[in-house]
Fold each of these.
Amino acid sequence: MNLLSPPAQVDIVEVAPRDGFQSIREPLPTEDKIRCIQLLIDAGVTRMEIGSFVSPRAIPQMADTGELVAAFADRSAMRFSALVPNLRGAELALASGIRELVFVVSVSESHNQGNVRRSVAQSLEELARLVALIEQEDNACLRLDLGTSFDCPYEGTIAWHQVDDVLSRARDLCGELHLEVALCDTTGRATPYQVAEHFRQLVARHQGPRLSWAFHGHDTYGMGVANALFAIHHGATTVDAACAGLGGCPFAPGATGNTATEDLVYAFNGGQVYSGINLPRLLAAADAIAALPGGQTASHLRQVPRDRVT
């Protein structure tokens, strides 16, 4: 399988404040979250999924997302996004000042029911309502996360044409709206060759001026960095990661943390792929995040003596 040249620059979306923090059961003090987010910004992070606008009953850890957005409202250089599960969440996010909305639809019917208690068709109906809302807003944009794009904890391996079916239906609803599409390895079971095949097939069918590609991976099977590298060699220009490898999908049994941002930055640096993130400062942020009570971390680079890292 031929590898394309990677882009000279890749956006890293830091997802520890959402995907990472939501995996911690006991609510974290808002001031601790603010401190960790500031450390990530100090390290050079410019894109961040700061939280989600969901019911506090569903995910109590995300109850203070609005406060976090307000605390960093003056950071014009930052691109903050937030996950929204429905129209109400989108309205709250936009009212708080968030301009980048993230909507998740799982390719697998079983996982979509477990994750948002809706069928895929019902999720796509909700997506249509979000698109109508975004089209009325200035400078608002949408990212579509396609969960279980490679594997489902209930249904097993997901073929690229299953992803194509959901994506095609979603694109029909989005019209002229610019869309960032993320293929999500929700369980962390994808292999680099599967990632390459999915991107190769889907980019060929859907590439266009109003579409960009992202990859969201977990490191459950130790493939996180390799999968991300294969993704950027086959069309992705954005990769998600969580500092310290914090996280794990609560609706995907056995899925451990996200790919550690510091591991990914180290790999990118070795290939002269620019991310704009300062690795020593990022490791300081990783130490602070790893020290939070109740978190599950999975960083490789944090285990290496610091004088050997750079």
Note: The chain has twelve helices and ten strands.
Amino acid sequence: MATPADVPGDDARKAATGEKATGVRDVKSAARTVELLELLAARQNRPARLRELSEALGMPRSSCYALLRTLVKYGWVRTDASGTMYGIGIRALLAGTTYLDTDPYVRLAKPALDALGERLDETFHFGRLAGGDVVYLVTRASSQYLRPHSRVGRRLPAYSTALGKALLAELDGPELDEHLPEQLTPLTEHTFTDRAALLRDLAEVRERGYAIDRQENSLGLHCFSLPLRYASPAADAISCSVPLARLTPAREAEIVGAMRAARDTIEQGAVSIGLVGSGGM
């Protein structure tokens, strides 16, 4: 049986995913390093100049430059030939790959999503709640359409995705508040921007048993998601993205039914190898 440090939902997971931790004081230099790497990662393919980074972080330019040069030396940050533009480095990729390779829940989810993809030929995801966002850890793409932003490592606001809403619906009160920003910024015209309306939608998720993203994250797509309850509260979920052009009530029922069976398989797999935490399922 897994120890509390092994399962999502505990203090170790909170520290890894950016949620609030208690009783630990930040080390300023380490915090600055993390903030800088996260800022560069969030820019994706848009390199930044020293001035942009120092201003965004509220850091003296000389301190920011020294930190950047250290991170460049060790491969966490890359720079162009002129040495004036900075982006995330290859060491970040290697660290992220190690995370995926060693996460036991990812290993359980991959074959289940592959089986769903083979059967239904839609795009399926496995994601994890990280603060106010959901991070995509596994993607099994449909052969019928390609989504350029459907990739491992993608981070999106939890309130705008089926994956995120499936996990937010598992929370209530202060726990839920910790994962919601003060302002709900729209990604599309269908994104919930009113907190009361979002809370009503989460109540419907609990009653229905699965979450629905109705073009709230991407126009032309509906998504369906179920939480994985091998930890309490659930931190992981699976989802399916379907173009509206071929979505019917019968197809929705078929997809959700298949996903429920896949969830059972994943959760039973977690039980069989001792990965269920106290209070889970």
Note: The beta strands are 48-49, 77-79, 85-88, 123-130, 133-140, 155-157, 211-214, 221-228, 236-243.
Amino acid sequence: MITRPALTRILASARERRSAVGAFNVILLEHAEAIASGAEQAGVPVVLQISENCVRYHGGLAPIALASLEIARQASVEVLVHLDHIEDTALVREGLELGVDSVMYDGSRLPYEENVRTTREIADLCHAAGVAVEAELGEVGGKDGVHAPGARTDPAEAVAFVAATGVDALAVAVGTSHAMVSRTASVDRALVAKLRDAVSVPLVLHGSSGLSDEELRGAVESGMTKVNISTHLNGLFTRSLKQFLDERPEVVDPRKYVRLGRAAVAEETARLLKLLAG
């Protein structure tokens, strides 16, 4: 019997229930610990995301990926480790060797036909290893300033892209923008509903830090199934550390203040996961 990849399974279940799975980016080891702890508090699955930027920061994939995989293994709820916005195909291969659960291959900078061809190759490679693949048809707003937040995914093109590539989930542009520090964005709910009805695989919302709780719920109710959040949690982490150090500048042991950031991320992760689950 062929077992479906873990991400495909949990997204299919969420899509059927009209709920969403939260996916949060790992920057430091404390992020992975906090996100897993928050998922345990909420009692629902979660996705730990490791981006190509994170890999560059740590000087390699293995240290942060292996640590995240071990945290996931020890969790009392299902925690998946996902490679996010990967453009380097060598990192995809390394991730498969290390045992990641899923990969978001980002060929959105490529010409359409090349994006389709490369994404198809990555999907075949990952599926042979029992790993799910997410892709992005066109760049979501805000990533490296290369696209305006007004970008929108065309449903017909999305249907053709999924059919041609065989991906398991699709990131779409519906009004959000990466790296927003204020929660003032809005989602084109009518477009989300059209995409959900047209596209056969779960839809992924990137740049969700810019959405209020009401907008997050609206996006999920309209048809988003995986919701990526990073900047919002990083802001909480950083503010917790800054407040402590402003009040106690004499402290030099990082454990005394980094733990506060970890606790803040865990608490907000639990809250967001419950919000997304509905």
Note: The mean pLDDT is 90.
